[in-house]
Amino acid sequence: MVMVSSVKWVDKVIADAPYAITEEFMNKLFTEYNIDYIIHGDDPCILPDGSDAYAHAKKAGRYKQIKRTEGVSSTDIVGRMLLCVRDRQILETPNHASLQRQFSHGSTPGQDNGNASGTRISHFLPTSRRIVQFSNGKGPRPDARIVYMDGAFDLFHAGHVEILKCARDYGDFLLVGIHTDQTVSAHRGPHHPIMSLHERSLSVLACRYVDEVIIGAPSEVTKDMIKTFNISLVLHGTVQESEGVRNGEKDCYAAAKELGIFKVINSPRDLTTSTIIRRIVTNHEAYKKRNEKKAESEKKYYATKQFVTGD
Question: Its domain of life (predicted)?
Answer without folding.
Answer: Eukaryota
